[in-house]
Amino acid sequence: MPVKIIQSTPSAYAYPLLIKQLLHTPMAIAPQQEITYQGKLRYSYRALRERIGRLASGLAGLGVDAGQTVAVMDWDSHRYLECFFAVPMMGAVLQTVNVRLSAEQILYTLNHAGADVLLVNREFFPLLAQIAARLESVRHFVLIDDEPKPGDDPVNFAAEYEKLLAGATADYDFPDFDENAQATVFYTTGTTGLPKGVYFSHRQLVLHTLGLAACVGGASAHGRLHREDVYMPITPMFHVHAWGFPYVATLLGLKQVYPGRYLPGALLHLIDTEKVSFSHCVPSIMQMLLSHPDSGAIDLSGWKVLIGGSAMSKTLASAALKRGIDVLSGYGMSETCPVLSIAHLHSDDFQAPLEQQATLRCKTGLPLPLVDLRIVTSEMADVARDGVATGEVVVRAPWLTQGYLAAPQASAELWAGTYLHTQDIGNIDPRGYLKITDRIKDVIKTAGEWTSSLELEDVVARHEAVQEVAVIGVPDEKWGERPLALVVLKPDFEGKVTEHAIRNFAAHWVERTGISRHGVLLQVRLIKALAKTSVGKINKREMREANERQAL
Question: What is the pTM of this model?
Answer without folding.
Answer: 0.88
